[in-house]
Amino acid sequence: MDEHIIEALGKSKIVIKDGKIVNIGEPKIDYCPLFHKHRNIEKLTKDKIKENIEFRIKDFGMCTAEREIRMKDFLTFGISEITSSLIEENIIDCAVMVCEGCGTVILDNPEIVQGVGGRVSGLIKTSPIPEIIEKIGIENVADPKNTTINQVEGVKLAINRGFKNIVVTFAGCDGLNEIQKLKDSNPDVNIYIFGVHTTGLSKKDASELISNCEIITACASKYVWEICEENNVYKVGESVPIYAITPKGAEFLKLRLDKIGGVKPKKDNPRIPEPLI
Q1: Nearest Cα to 116, choosing from 129, 128, 100?
Q2: Is the pTM above the cut of 0.85?
Q3: Contact present, 168 and 191 (Cβ < 8 Å)
Q4: How far apart (Å, rounded) are the C-alpha atoms in residues 141 and 176?
Q5: How far apart are CA 139 and CA 149, in angstroms?
Q6: N or C of the chain: less Cβ packing under 10 Å?
Q7: Pick from 259, 115, 98: which is nearest to 167 by CA?
């Protein structure tokens, strides 16, 4: 029996076994602008979450052997869209990300980056699904036997594979020191950290992740919003901003902006996630 645990739709803890939802926790936020815009969900409830997860399982096979792994751009401006654009433009060679049924993976195809990262976020734990591993390529899975989520091991594998410009997504602070050691011991390799799934981070963890990132998504993180806004960090987006922490991060955001035709006019009083936590 395979089991997959994700935090989604207001950071509700969702458990899926053999393609069926077996548990849905209470969401920690009530409103997400992205789900309102794209799925017309005005209030996050357990019923709405169940409906959305069942839709994903049916639509593209989330957490099942039928998982579709390729997709064109979904959001105008998200972490997976930025990453896929960087690969398309040969700015980076690969991305170390996370996929259900695989754990940590190395991706160098922009459509697979988008299909994996744009469809499922907040993966906490997963178990092997051989069919997904085969689609991704067993050589691209850091731990195909146990499907662990370990971004440091993913970066090590990418370096050993000869990649020189690597994006790695981080949802917390575990492993950041090890990534710095990899940077120090591999001066010919560029490793760019993208902060994701930040809702609920403590102030200490938010500060540490921000200090190590090129870019970071605000999600519904009280402290990512607070720290970045207080420091007037360059950002794209109003309802759920993505912040560029470094000059290289700003380059990445601007490249994506150029690809989609620039910034849309700002909305008056844009609605943001409620509450920030």
Answers
A1: 100
A2: yes
A3: yes
A4: 20
A5: 16
A6: N
A7: 98
Could you read off the pLDDT of 161-214 as tens digits, one per residue? 999 999 999 999 999 999 999 999 999 999 999 999 999 999 999 999 999 999
Tokens of 194: 């993208």
Strand 165-170 with 235-236, pairing: unpaired
Residue pair 83/168 in contact by the 8 Å Cβ criterion: no
Tokens 């970045």 sit on residue: 228
214-234 residue pLDDT tens = 999 999 999 999 999 999 999
Angle of the 247-260 helix axis to the 79-88 helix axis, nearest 10: 90
The residues, any chain, with a CB within 8 Å of residue 198's CB and separated by 6 or more, are 171, 206, 209, 216, 217, 218, 219, 221, 224
Amino acid at 191: I
Angle between helical axes of 203-212 and 222-230 (0-180°, round to 10): 60
Taking CA 42 as the corner, what is the angle to CA 74 and CA 240, rounded to the nearest 5 degrees?
Answer: 50
Taking the C-alpha atoms of residue 22 and residue 80, their distance in angstroms, rounded to an integer, is 28
Task: Give strand pairing partners of 94.
Answer: 166
Residue 15 β-bridge partners: 5, 23
What pLDDT sits at residue 216? 98
- A 10 A CB-CB count for 194 gives 25
Angle ∠(13,79,263) on CA atoms, nearest 5: 125
Count how many residues are written for the chain.
277
Residue located via tokens 């209470």: 26
Residue type present at position 44? L
Terminal CA-CA length for the chain: 34
Count CB atoms within 10 A of the CB of residue 247.
Answer: 10
Residue whose C-alpha is closest to residue 152's, from 113, 94, 191, 190: 191
